Amino acid sequence: MATPEQQAAALTARRQRFEVRLQWFGDRVAQNVQIGMRTRLRIAAQMLRDAVVINLSTPVHKRRGRRSRRIVVDPSSRSKPGEFPRADTTRLMKDIYFETEVDRAIVGTTLDYGLVLEVRRNRSFLRRTLNELAPTINRILTTGAGGGGTAHFPGDNE
């Protein structure tokens, strides 16, 4: 058992104040995470755009017409419903773009017939490519420091 002097010394030691300095780096960490996420988002959007262009790059077969000797498209080489559209002029393929913002990326086309092919003609190329690459895109978005995100296409049931 401790003597009264030892007890008093222990009590005094517990009452002493210690100077503690706490430094918060949360803002810097959040900024680094945001920069990393923006980079991963840009990589994923570029990869999706490139995959869409590759999926649109299968050409139609062209041949010379029998009577006119003009170059015509073989009707049997056109895309069927459910397939990726086939390239006739490559205009759609060249018009696929991507842009990134702080927290989202957009991959699309400015051509009206791209929307028609995607929605009305059952020749989806944007949504289908996104669905094929979703596991890879999710892996890109969720890898690294503090990153978290998933790929969603407008209109998908989440």
Structure description:
- With 158 residues, the chain is mainly alpha-helical.
- The chain has a domain at 32-58 and 91-142.
- It has five helices and four strands, in the order ααββαββαα.
- It has a two-stranded antiparallel sheet with strand order 1-2.
- The longest helix is centred in the first third of the chain and has 30 residues, at 26-55.
- The model has no long low-confidence stretch (mean pLDDT 85).
Write a concise keyword list for the protein shown above.
158 residues, two-stranded antiparallel sheet, 46% helix, rod-shaped
Low confidence ranges = none
In what range is the share of β-strand residues?
5-15%
On the 0-100 scale, what is the average pLDDT? 85
Total helices: the number is 5
Compute the separation of the termini in Å. Answer: 67 Å
Task: Indicate the percent of residues in helices.
Answer: 40-55%
Please state how the strands of the largest beta sheet are arranged side by side. 1-2
- What's the helix-strand series? HHEEHEEHH
> Given the helix and strand composition, which structural class is it?
mainly alpha
The total beta strand count reads: 4
Biggest pleated-sheet summary: 2 strands, antiparallel
Compute the CA-based radius of gyration.
Answer: 30 Å
Shape: rod-shaped
